[in-house]
Amino acid sequence: MKRASFILFGLSIVFASCTDPRREQELQRKERALNEKEQVLLQKEKSLQIKEEELIRMKLRLDSTLNKVPKDTGVYNPDLEGRWSVTMNCTETTCPGSAVGDTKTEQWDIAHENNRLIAKAFDNGKLVRMYSGLYNGSTLELTVNQNEKIPEQATTIVVKVQQSSKNKLEGTREIIRAENCKILYAVQFVKK
């Protein structure tokens, strides 16, 4: 009986050391597949890295180009310079103390200063406000912010006009007050 046990033990060692060829082939096939997948992933990673570097280069080129564009670019038009009689007629309002149909007239002096247009508004010979802005070739846009240091009294005024003839501009003037109301005027500039 000892001998039979010994033979069985020996045979089990021999069979255990032998591997199934199908199983070994399957393991080798899986190992090759994993290696191939690893190579594909490495190639994709390298490709993504190259694309990322190209995007960074493009962004840097674009940023450097954008930084070279002046922020205050406007079109010079000598016809805009000079003294203008400005008539403003209220067409819309949500502010107390103003009414549709209110009209006011001011004298404006417009000049170019440092690539911008400056408009000085006079009422009865007294300077009442100064606007600044740009002319883009078709529209003159001027703005003024009053009482910026006192937010509850802050007022923004935006004037947008277009040239209807050599000596005439027409458009709108919008006043936006801190108390969430606005006044809209139809404006007409006539050059003196």
List the topology elements:
Layout: H1 2-17, H2 21-68, E1 82-93, E2 103-113, E3 116-123, E4 126-135, E5 139-146, E6 155-165, E7 168-177, E8 181-191
Antiparallel strand pairs: 1-2, 1-8, 2-3, 3-4, 4-5, 5-6, 6-7, 7-8
Describe this structure in words.
By secondary structure, the chain is α+β, with helices and mostly antiparallel strands. The protein folds into two domains: 2-68; 78-191, Lipocalin (Beta Barrel). Helix content is 33%, strand content 42%. The chain has two helices and eight strands. The chain has helices at 2-17, 21-68; strands at 82-93, 103-113, 116-123, 126-135, 139-146, 155-165, 168-177, 181-191. Strands 1-2-3-4-5-6-7-8 form an eight-stranded antiparallel beta barrel. It is elongated, with a radius of gyration of 40 Å.
Number of domains: 2
Which second-level CATH architecture of the largest domain applies?
Beta Barrel
**Global Rg:** 40 Å
- SS strand fraction: 35-45%
Helix content: 25-40%
Structural class: alpha+beta
Question: Termini distance?
Answer: 132 Å
Low-confidence blocks of residues: none
Classify the fold: give the CATH topology of the largest domain: Lipocalin
Fourth-tier CATH superfamily name of the largest domain: Quinohemoprotein amine dehydrogenase alpha subunit, domain 2
Largest sheet: 8 strands, antiparallel, barrel
**N-to-C series of helices and strands:** HHEEEEEEEE
Number of helices: 2
> How would you state the average pLDDT, rounded?
82
Task: Assign an overall shape.
Answer: elongated
**Physical arrangement of strands within the biggest beta sheet:** 1-2-3-4-5-6-7-8
Broad CATH class of the largest domain: Mainly Beta
The count of β-strands is 8
